[in-house]
Write a structure and sequence with these properties.
Layout lengths: L5 H11 L3 H10 L4 H11 L3 H5 L6 E8 L3 E9 L2 H4 L2 H16 L5 H5 L2 E2 L2 E2 H12 L3 E10 L4 E7 L5 E9 L2 H6 L1 H14 L11 H17 L7 H16 L5 E2 L2 E5 H10 L5 E10 L11 H9 L1
Antiparallel strand pairs: 1-2, 2-5, 3-4, 6-7, 7-10, 8-9
Length: 304
């Protein structure tokens, strides 16, 4: 006895744009498992969504959702920047962010394994891929929890290409409330200045050793005597930390202070103290390899 009916065939067709008989065959081959049927069609190269799902999605947007309790940041990719500006895509992003926030899905793996609106997230994605017309990927997600003495805030650059969320631990709830706007300023700083680490404690010892080796080779090439290298290296490492750790970077809105000094000064104005404890910075498309397409060759291939 079949584990599916006409409604399932219709639903699969809506999800994938595949032909009715192809959808029926897919459901029969997978014993009515909708997700498996979508995969079956994809493997066969059938249906618009199946074909779209094979396209590289390196555009899209970085989004954040911030409340007094939590800051969530996510990267949701599309194939083109044009679609990323589409109102349907924006509504889709807002729904995904709200789902991730409300259900405490703090990474992409948990999000993609979840259920949304009573259906598997993969099925929800396939429906939206078919509706919007491009492959889309919920690629990266992270969250930072707030608390009585922990303030969170964030920032997304106007073009949606870069987003940051930050957190600070304070001496009191009053101080946490007072530094919230400063944290947004720090998030804006991090968006522009690209810190790799929060502070020195977050850097693997191997990274520091590698930087020492690089600095030593540079000094030797500059003709510095071997005997004084060990005296110069600490200064080089200090500069590396200043350039790459958020707390030590010179604050872009007041370069007479480091970022940590700026935060401390804001907290001090209300008689309190605060220190940065976490941040997440996402830049759209980081690490995604996009093949250069030969448009003329693609057209010629389609006409052959």
């Amino acid at each position: 006895m079949a584990n599916f009916g006409p409604k399932d065939i219709k639903k699969l067709r809506q999800m994938t744009d595949a032909g009715m008989m192809d959808c029926k065959q897919a459901l029969a081959a997978t014993e009515g498992d909708m997700d498996a049927a979508v995969d079956w069609l994809r493997k066969k190269g059938l249906g618009a969504a199946a074909k779209k799902a094979g396209k590289v999605a390196a555009e899209g947007t970085i989004a954040v959702k911030i409340t007094e309790d939590k800051a969530v940041i996510g990267e949701i990719n599309s194939q083109t920047d044009f679609v990323a500006q589409n109102d349907k895509f924006k509504a889709f992003v807002a729904e995904v962010m709200a789902h991730a926030y409300d259900n405490n899905h703090h990474d992409a793996e948990a999000l993609n394994a979840s259920e949304i609106n009573g259906q598997p997230f993969a099925e929800f994605m396939s429906l939206n891929i078919a509706t919007i017309g491009e492959n889309m990927v919920a690629r990266r997600f992270a969250a930072i929890e707030a608390g009585d003495k922990i303030a969170v805030n964030g920032y997304v650059h106007a073009n949606g290409k870069v987003g940051v969320v930050v957190a600070a631990e304070c001496d009191s709830a009053e101080t946490a409330a007072a530094v919230k706007e400063a944290l947004k300023n720090i998030a804006m700083h991090a968006a522009a200045m690209r810190p790799q680490f929060l502070d020195e404690s977050k850097i693997d010892a191997a990274v520091i050793e590698k930087e020492k080796e690089i600095a030593k080779e540079q000094l030797i090439k500059e003709g510095k005597p071997e005997a004084i290298l060990e005296k110069i290296l600490p200064g080089k490492i200090k500069r590396f930390l200043q350039d790459n750790t958020l707390v030590d970077q010179k604050f872009v809105m007041d370069d007479k202070k480091s970022v940590s000094e700026y935060l401390s000064s804001v907290a001090k104005e209300v008689g309190g103290s605060a220190k940065l404890i976490d941040f997440v910075r996402l830049e759209l498309g980081e690490g995604i390899e996009v093949e250069e397409e030969d448009f003329a060759a693609e057209v010629a291939a389609q006409m052959a």
